[in-house]
């Protein structure tokens, strides 16, 4: 199911560098890139649109402004964009305030959840491209 172009892009401002790893999707693998700034997320997404973007970190201001920028300035219109929030300090925004965001996740983000989200994002992308 996953092609060489399919990847997951994660914004985590706690990461000092941009490591890359793979996520097992049954018989397929999907690359995972971790960016430490929103600028890195946009730059990477402009190179090739990810299937899934997960935004995490302490700076929640991106919800209204930068998510729209990401959606509009890249080919990420087919990407699933989610925000990761802490269960002890949730920062929910009404859907009307964040129409470019597909939803919210609550930490911790496990490998099983990430795998399921990635598979769903790949299917969404395949159907929207058809």
What report would you give on this structure?
The protein has about 130 residues and is an alpha/beta fold. The protein has a single domain (about 5-130), classed as 3-Layer(aba) Sandwich (Rossmann fold), CATH 3.40.50.2300. The protein is about 30% helix and about 25% strand. It contains 3 helices and 6 strands, in the order βββαβαββα. Strands 2-3-1-4-5-6 form a 6-stranded mixed sheet. A hairpin with a 2-residue loop joins β2 (about 20-25) and β3 (about 30-35). α1 (about 40-45) packs parallel to α2. The two termini are about 15 Å apart.
How are the SSEs ordered, and which strands pair?
Blueprint: E1 7-11, E2 20-25, E3 28-35, H1 38-47, E4 52-55, H2 66-73, E5 80-85, E6 103-106, H3 111-129
Parallel strand pairs: 1-3, 1-4, 4-5, 5-6
Antiparallel strand pairs: 2-3
Q: Ranges with pLDDT <50 over ≥5 residues?
A: none
CATH architectural label: 3-Layer(aba) Sandwich
Helix content: 25-40%
Lateral arrangement of strands in the main beta sheet:
2-3-1-4-5-6
| E-strand count | 6
Mean pLDDT score, rounded?
77
Alpha carbon gyration radius: 14 Å
Number of domains: 1
- Assign an overall shape: globular
Q: Name the CATH superfamily assignment.
A: Response regulator
Top CATH class? Alpha Beta
What's the total helix number?
3
Largest sheet: 6 strands, mixed
Termini gap: 15 Å
Strand percentage: 25-35%
Structural class: alpha/beta
CATH topology: Rossmann fold
**String of helices and strands:** EEEHEHEEH
